[in-house]
């Protein structure tokens, strides 16, 4: 048959190759099919005034070389019976299409696009015009042409790949029919001639075979299929599929719902799995596009499952998914068989509970994909167009039997599968190992039955066609009984407008309508497969989606009954105070880096330094003012200096009081009363400066600090320098002559002292003029690496350099005084305190030599201000104490405890004093020489 037809086709001149292919498909495959299948009917035919086509996946895809596999009870038989049920209801309704009977031609797609294409050619045979004048049989008689069966619309065809291919073919033949009056081309089927011989006339090429003028066939999609359904966004393209309508929403709505679900669960890193074909690939494409537009969602991997997977293919898919193991969420647009094999591979890889599946409506609430894989599927979230169980259909289907349902040519096969028995049929060998069917079995009573989820949509699709035809009949055939001439044949483009205009309550009570693209509104139920904490494992409704998501997280539970939503993220959120360092090319992956030091989190991607007077919050989300501190009186750094200062002030006050009280006694007069009082004043100020250094800084306090910091030492050192200078000049002058040196009187001594002091005061006043005293808050001094310990120091604006300059003049006086003390070391110790002053200077120099490294060595310490203040005040107090203890405490002791020594001694002339001092010096030098071993001579004791 095939070769014969092909031979006749080769005689056609100038027919485009695409039409030749269609000719082969139409006639060659059709004849071959008949030859191979024999007399077994391949379709259900129900007579009627108007015929509706039906394409259902009654069987699954067969193995290689076999078009069909096992029967599909739910997707196939349930949906097919739903169409038959709807036709029965419509034909028995006196108000809907009165006096018009709807017939049907229902075909099996076997879940395979190529097989569905072959079957769908049945629908277009009646559209091919037959011209009796052009065709003659071999005996010269005209062909016998029966009245054509006109299919006005097709309910189906389940899979997207199937639907798109069928829609294209039906549209193509509608184009050929559109041009029939212009005689561009006329095709005839050879079977109408008894001799199978076709005569031909001149053929004219048909330009624009895929023109957009399509009129005859309406393809009405009702549900998604194995290859995943007619939800494809591609089918909303009116420029390509203008006669395509569907009572289920397109995948763009479904993809939006799935994106909303993923984001509601806090996931931002997922993988996608798609069965090869329009449904799977278009669904994933829609998901990817919507996720990109929404933002905040990254795709770890997008994997396509081959149409004909090789052995081990699904194990490889699981391994690929585990390459990005953090992406636990898997968005799956796959057919039922692929879903099952993915779950099997995950179970085989011992990954039960790892993957978090979000399944499209091809998974829905079906048991078949998860059968024997329940543990792996636990927690899977699935989506399904909002549906309801039709009780009337349950009653109808439960009443079907082998006797009353002979119109369904596949029902016997369903019966055997449903009741696990075997019927005796012609040509089928009896299997003794299987129970024989009695015919008395009953659906739902003797077998498990649950209405398939898309039954509602099948019924609504048939009713949509009926309502459209009813409205069309009311407009074109008013008052006419049955089909009038204007509806014979039904004009496709006009019928399309009526279909798009329907608006009625469907079988579940929800509205059935279409938008301008032929799409139904998006309404979905959200399910989760649960096993733990439930009496019966199964799918639980956890929410719904109608333009926006309404999810009940409290109803969700995951593997092991855990109610906390698992993570599916590339990187976990950074801790407080950590910024995201993005991974190049993967916007949902990042590394967390702590904002360290004095940085705070400016935004999620960057850190910034806090202002100089602030430090970061503990969580580093902002900055807070740095605490301001000062040296408190209760601080250990203040207690010791204050204690020493108080003792010193009390001692100094006691000395002054004693000297004033015994002002005219020989010891007081011999010590040089005028300079002694000046020296004691300086010592008092040295002790007093401790309180100014610890007091809370203010402008007044800072001014007094500048004034008295160096003044006390300047007064003390000036007085002692004047004393030692006077002694040195007296004895140096005595060596040369008996005439006393100048400026050794008390008045002269006071003048010299005040001149030396005035230099200090002049420097301080110049300092006041150049830089007026003021306070500052130093935030750098106590700024350790840990900002929690950062403090701002309230202090006077006195740098280390300015402080040393303030003391430098006093130190120069001290060094000069020490030099004179060294030069005057030979003076008798009973003469005007020369040696006590010397010892005082030596000790003071040692104190200040120790002070300098301590003071500057703590410059980098966070306790710098406290250490330096304490060091300075203690050093000054020690210096004052040395002066007070060596110069005045012995005198006070004699005055108070040995008043008998405080008497006037014999006066000597200046010359006698100098001679006595000279002899004393020589004796001292000889004594030193003997001790050094330079002379062994004993002195003449008589001398």
TrEMBL record:
The keyword Transcription does not apply. Residues 637-911 form the G-protein coupled receptors family 3 profile domain. It is a multi-pass membrane protein. Keywords: Cell membrane, Disulfide bond, G-protein coupled receptor, Glycoprotein, Membrane, Receptor, Signal, Transducer, Transmembrane, Transmembrane helix. GO terms for molecular function: G protein-coupled receptor activity. It is found in: Cell membrane. InterPro entries: ANF_lig-bd_rcpt, GPCR_3, GPCR_3_9-Cys_dom, GPCR_3_9-Cys_sf, GPCR_3_C, GPCR_3_CS, GPCR_3_mGluR4, GPCR_3_mtglu_rcpt. It comes from the Eukaryota. Residues 921-943 are annotated as: Disordered. Coiled coil: none annotated. Residues 927-943 have a biased composition (Basic and acidic residues). Belongs to the G-protein coupled receptor 3 family. This is G-protein coupled receptors family 3 profile domain-containing protein.
